[in-house]
Write a structure and sequence with these properties.
The chain is α+β, with helices and mostly antiparallel strands. It has 2 domains: 76 residues, Winged helix-like DNA-binding domain superfamily/Winged helix DNA-binding domain (Arc Repressor Mutant, subunit A), CATH 1.10.10.10; 170 residues, Endonuclease Chain A (Endonuclease, Chain A), CATH 3.30.870. Helix content is 39%, strand content 22%. It contains 13 helices and 16 strands. The strands form 4 sheets. It has an 8-stranded mixed beta sheet. It has a 3-stranded antiparallel beta sheet with strand order 1-3-2. Strand 14 and strand 15 form a beta hairpin. It is elongated, with a radius of gyration of 25 Å. The C terminus is likely disordered.
Length: 315
């Protein structure tokens, strides 16, 4: 094995020292405080970095700094280490969901998500309870961008309140969900006349449940890699995560078509719809998992679907 490779990758302490020194030269007290280490545990690791030409010690200032080679190595490994740290915070989350809808360049920048938490909603519950924390995030936002392939009607009021408050808002969703807003097309068209309100129709095969980016927070939920009715949101307040989320949103917007007006068109009977519906006693809420079912529109009434799940022929 290459000795330099061993030095860099076989010690988390040595990697941490390198990444701290990449920001700026530091003295021993700073390194000990940041890494929660003692002199006894840290000095042998620093000596190894000095011996291998990665770090030098300035006797006059007492500071350690990277050599030219050390700086080059640290800049190369930092994105990789940060990405591993993001995944390691909740490996079960990343393993359980399908990330194929995220383009390669953004996957390479996954480290920018930084610190995050996971909020879970159990969609198997017929009596769905609105998540107050999610509502607070939207209510406190000064701008909102949401891409969604499912619709929880319970959240519409908080979005509407922000719309009427005049904040910039962009919504991207599928034609199926846009069609479900048919009774409100007149009201939606009035909202679309506002200067900072935009609606986009997105392709139905994008495997992202929801992406919401505000000026303060990133919320992201993927489709499960396996059949699962637990919806988990990644929540991050990191500035770099919000930038990453905006870039993902812009990518999805490039695949979508802007709608400046919604028009009522005739509905054809005996259609094939590709969506999965979860029903509560209070509303029809769509959670799109892409399955296929054929029905006659007149037979699809609230009385026939009340308090039941439709799960057929999952593709």
């Amino acid at each position: 094995m290459n000795p330099l490779f061993d030095t860099v990758f076989y010690s988390e302490k040595r990697r941490s020292v390198m990444l701290l020194l990449l920001e700026s030269p530091r003295d021993l007290n700073f390194l000990k405080k940041e890494l929660h280490e003692t002199s006894v545990s840290l000095l042998p690791q620093i000596k190894r970095l000095i011996d291998d030409g990665i770090v030098i010690h300035d006797q006059a200032s007492g500071e350690y700094r990277l050599t030219m080679i050390g700086d080059l190595i640290a800049k190369k490994i930092r994105p990789f280490i940060r990405k591993i740290e993001v995944i390691d915070r909740d490996p079960e989350f990343w393993a359980a969901y399908d990330l194929s809808a995220v383009p390669g360049p953004l996957l390479d920048r996954l480290s920018e998500i930084g610190r995050f938490s996971i909020t879970e909603i159990d969609l198997r519950s017929v009596y769905f309870t609105v998540d107050t924390e999610f509502c607070r995030m939207i209510a406190e936002a000064d701008s909102v961008k949401t891409f969604t392939t499912f619709n929880l009607a319970e959240y519409i009021p908080v979005y509407y309140e922000r719309l009427t408050a005049g904040i910039p808002m962009t919504i991207m969703t599928t034609s199926t969900l846009i069609e479900r807003g048919r009774p409100y097309f007149d009201r939606i068209n009035e909202l679309l006349k506002m200067p900072d309100v935009f609606l986009y129709e997105s392709p139905s095969d994008i495997k992202i449940c929801e992406l919401t980016v505000t000026d303060k927070v990133l919320l992201l939920s993927f489709y499960p890699a396996k059949d699962d009715l637990n919806l988990r949101y990644l929540v991050s307040y990191e500035e770099s995560a919000i930038r990453w989320g905006n870039d993902l949103f812009d990518y999805l917007k490039s695949l979508s078509v802007r709608k400046t007006e919604l028009r009522r068109t005739a509905v054809t009977c005996g259609m094939i719809l590709r969506f999965n519906i979860i029903i509560s006693d209070h509303s029809l809420s769509g959670f799109i998992i892409h399955f296929k079912t054929r029905f006659h529109p007149r037979s699809f009434t609230r009385s026939t679907v009340h308090s039941h799940y439709f799960r057929k022929e999952i593709l």
